[in-house]
Amino acid sequence: MLRPVSHITPEQLESGQRALVQDLAWASLCGAFSGGVILVAFALTLGATPLQVGLLAAIPFLTQASQLPATLLIEKVRLRRRIGVLSITAARVVVLAMALLPLMPPHGPVLLSLIAAQVLISTFNAVGGCAINSWLHQLIPHERLGNFFSRRLFFGTALACVGTLAAGQLVDSAPFGNPKYAYAAAFAIAGIAGFISSWHLGRAPEPAMPSGAPPGRAWERLRRPFRDPNFRRLLVFLSAWTIASNFAAPFLTVYLIEQRGYAIGTVTSLWVTSQVGNALTLYLWGRLSDRLSNKGVLAVVLPVHFACVLALVFVDALDKAQWQLGVLYAIHLVMGIATGGIALATGNLGLKLAPQGEGTAYLAAIGLASAVAGGLAPVLAGALAQAFQTSELSAVVRWQSPGQWKELGIFSFAHWEFLFGISALLGLYVIHALYRIEEGREVSERQVVQAFVLEARRSLNNLSSVAFGGLFPFERLNERRKWWRAERRRLREPPRWPEQRSFDRRQRA
Question: How far is the C-alpha of 328 from the C-alpha of 205, rounded, in Å?
Fold first, then answer.
């Protein structure tokens, strides 16, 4: 049972891809009811400090270090599907057991139990993920990576949106007038959805692993990714991205709940807005990454993402609460579009630059780099947020003249907003590290933007009975540009006699 096969037919491959799509969809539902906004909100009800919130965010990264012994286990046992399915299912058992935590006495060690449960869940997921990544690296043809992962992420994101909205409404409605029952029900639903995900995961076929390394050479294979110059540059980029993004992302929910005072339902709707933007553009990013390059996609979406993070600092500049909430929805939508491209392109880069047959070691190196970077960033950010709780940094322009005095606030950083500003600054190095990677054919940002607009235009024309072609007159603009170029050349030419112009006309005729 759950053993690899020597040959996989096209029909089996297609069926396995459908099973993997359903696996991620149910896994996303599990995460919606047990992680993200719901997990942070539950931790805050238990009195979690910023440092403890940062620790909860760091646990999934710190436990990625377990991928190293998992790699050795996979090389020895060579049963990736069995290891992956059993490990992931064990994590779902712990998720289901979390339903008991809200029912425990509030003065007991509930918060410590929550942290311990997250350690177990993340460790099992890391071991299972190591096996699954190596398995998919060999199963899915490289030329179909973008299409497959965009389809898989689309359905996963769609179900995660539905689950997150439902979980937010469940907590806000508070059955029996007590939110602890809502959290218990949410964790129970998450466990059941996780078991359905494991069942679909076990239905996908596993090709037999290539011949193993010679005895005593396993550690040599683990060191090889760090000796590959180009792959080492990829590891530096991924580490920098993980640090920059995790300086802000884990605390966005806390910022919205504590500093802005929004209800759980509003926070989940903001998260869903981000995921809707993510889902609507995943197919576009998938096609672009296959047709152009992952590096070109990242060169466009990374600056957009960090600009959105920095924009969170200036939300308070708006006077009306309705406008502030509207801007937050817009920021989340754009950030979701950018994050979809980042997640797809970074995942594809790791799979593309890992040599065929050595995916286990190379992808484990990515997991190790993410573990170190992602483990440090939220803990450090949580410590800084705890230190900045009563601090504020403002920039004010003051005008003073006889009988007149005015002040204009430019920006103001308070508490969590410090983390958003630091994250945006770190993004500058992330973009620098990206340009040092060699993926192959270089594609400019302009080409990616043009291709994205054309793909979006084609999708809109397919989805709507209204033709959107007239809204994007690129052809007319191009013709106008050519006319202006010809006109400038004509003006630069010296004047000619009428006889010469008449001769030119006869020649053209």
Answer: 43
Greater pLDDT, 465 or 93: 93
326 & 471 share domain: no
Residue where a domain stops, chosen among 358, 387, 416 = 387
Give the C-alpha distances (Å, rounded to integers) separating 393 from 217, 416, 421.
Answer: 54, 12, 11
- In this structure, is residue 397 part of a structural domain? no
Question: 181 is written with which tokens?
Answer: 């029952």
Residue 438 lies in a domain: no
Q: Are 159 and 200 in contact (CB under 8 A)?
A: no
- The C-alpha atoms of residue 144 and residue 289 are separated, in whole angstroms, by 10
- Say which CATH number the domain at 142 has: 1.20.1250.20
Closest Cα partner for 191 from 379, 76, 29?
A: 29
Torsion angle, CA of 497/503/504/508, rounded to 10 degrees? 160
Tokens of 107: 């003065």
Model confidence at 459, pLDDT cuts 50, 70, 90, reads: very low
Instruction: Tell me which residue range forms the domain holding 471.
Output: 450-508
Domain co-membership, 246 together with 120: yes
- If residue 418 lies in a helix (H) or strand (E), which one and from where to where? helix 417-434
pLDDT digits (tens, 9 = 90+) for 171-215: 888 765 678 889 999 999 999 999 999 999 988 888 887 765 554
Q: Give the CA angle between residues 88, 121, 347 to the nearest 5°.
A: 65
Q: What is the mean pLDDT of residues 321-329?
A: 91
DSSP 312: G
Domain match, 465 and 341 both: no
pLDDT at res. 97: 95
Q: Which two tokens stand for residue 361?
A: 């070691």
The answer to whether 156 and 25 have CB atoms below 8 angstroms apart is yes
- The model's pLDDT over 28-56, given as tens digits with 9 standing for 90+, comes to 999 999 988 899 999 988 888 888 888 99
- Alpha carbons 1 and 12: distance in angstroms, whole number: 16
Number of domains in the chain: 2
The pairing of strands 392-401 and 404-414 is antiparallel
**pTM for the structure as a whole:** 0.70
